TrEMBL record:
Keywords: Transferase. The keyword Chloroplast does not apply. It comes from the Bacteria. Residues 19-176 form the Glycosyltransferase subfamily 4-like N-terminal domain. This is Glycosyltransferase family 4 protein.
Length: 366
């Protein structure tokens, strides 16, 4: 793969500045490929109403972003994305698809044989409950030269395809997380935190259900939930019904600076993720690594992509997300060996820095 002949096209269902794990991954992939001096273009939707946020964000990037203009009818956007993708694919040497519609878009597009295609799968898009949708994703994936899964859990969701799947874990920009951290006191001894959309998938409700027993041992414990409050109203009602409402705070979305302050002041990151009724699953758990970068160990649920995001017994502990006893034992264990877990968490985060992760993608693109 030479710089002169390489034009890498990334088609993604999400992209900053709007939130989303798939978008965050696509952004870093594009950024670090461009840092290797490759020509990179991203095709993504405009998700804000006016497009001003995207326009300001895209202008500062070292690579081209083509936005599909937001329209009232989603079908028009889908059509425009297909037409734009078809046009760009004529000259691309490498095509990377990430996100459900992007997999369909490239999988069923008549891409010229000279172009190398890569699908990146995160979890939910290969765990759809509808037979028709699930089958259509399977058929699309069969058309790709390379499939990358962000965790072994996600890889297992497509084991029936009998295709080679390479696991490349999600990465973070460690330096970005360590820069400009101000001190911010946080309520609770110990203080626990979950970062992510307040939803069944992220597992905040599983933590709340464990609190009645935990506060007996840790009467000053406090649980902080940071993220878009999608299901917060219902979760608050559950907490109140369990008489632990005063032990939980929903902060909503916060700025990156405030998030760093809160993470730096917390004792433990917690993510007891579970599958939603629609098949939404945690494919990895990038927020865990972001906390690790600041030396914050994590407790996470087994049976999902979090198993790849936590080095069990080192950067944190993996437990049965429905077991209060397991949660309490893990909490006591980490708090009793806090210095060791903090050190190991930082080491684990460093191993997932994008300066290292990008090399695994470069090897596949050769």
């Amino acid at each position: 793969m030479t710089l002169e002949t390489t034009y890498i096209l990334i088609i993604t269902s999400e992209f900053p500045p709007q939130p989303g794990g798939i978008g965050n991954h696509a952004y870093n992939l594009a950024l670090y490929l461009s840092k290797q001096d490759y020509t990179v273009e991203v095709i993504a939707d405009q998700r804000s109403i006016t497009g001003d946020e995207e326009r300001d964000f895209d202008t500062a990037l070292p690579f081209l972003v083509t936005r599909i203009k937001r329209t009232r009818r989603r079908s028009f956007m889908y059509l425009q994305r297909i037409l734009t993708t078809r046009k760009r694919c004529r000259t691309a040497s490498h095509i990377i698809a990430t996100g459900k519609f992007s997999l369909w878009n490239i999988g069923f597009l008549n891409v010229r044989k000279a172009a190398k295609t890569m699908a990146i799968i995160h979890g939910t898009e290969v765990n759809l409950k509808s037979f028709f949708l699930r089958k259509s994703i399977d058929l699309a994936l069969q058309k790709f030269n390379t499939i990358v899964a962000v965790s072994n859990y996600t890889k297992g969701l497509v084991a029936h395809l009998n295709k080679k799947v390479v696991v490349i874990p999600n990465g973070i920009d460690v330096d970005q997380w360590l820069a400009n951290i101000a001190q911010q006191p946080l309520k609770g001894q110990p203080s626990l935190i979950t970062v992510g959309r307040v939803s069944s998938r992220k597992g905040q409700l599983n933590v709340i259900k464990r609190l009645p027993e935990l506060v007996k041992r840790f009467p000053e414990l406090h649980y902080h939930c940071v993220g878009i409050p999608t299901e917060a109203e219902y979760f608050i009602k559950v907490a109140e019904a369990l008489h632990v409402g005063s032990y939980v705070t929903f902060h909503g979305s916060v700025s990156a600076a405030i998030l760093k302050q809160m993470l730096g002041a917390t004792d433990l990151f917690v993510m007891l993720s579970s599958e939603s009724v629609t098949g939404d699953v945690e494919g990895f758990g990038i927020a865990i690594l972001e906390a690790n970068a600041l030396g914050i160990p994590a407790i996470g649920a087994k049976g999902c992509g979090i198993e790849d995001a936590i080095s069990d017994g080192h950067s944190g502990l993996l437990i049965n997300g429905n077991s209060t006893k397991d949660f309490e034992t893990a909490l006591v264990t980490i708090l009793s060996h806090k210095a060791t877990y903090r050190m190991e968490a930082k080491k684990w985060a460093q191993q997932h820095d994008w300066t290292l992760i990008i090399n695994q993608y470069l090897a596949l693109l050769e």
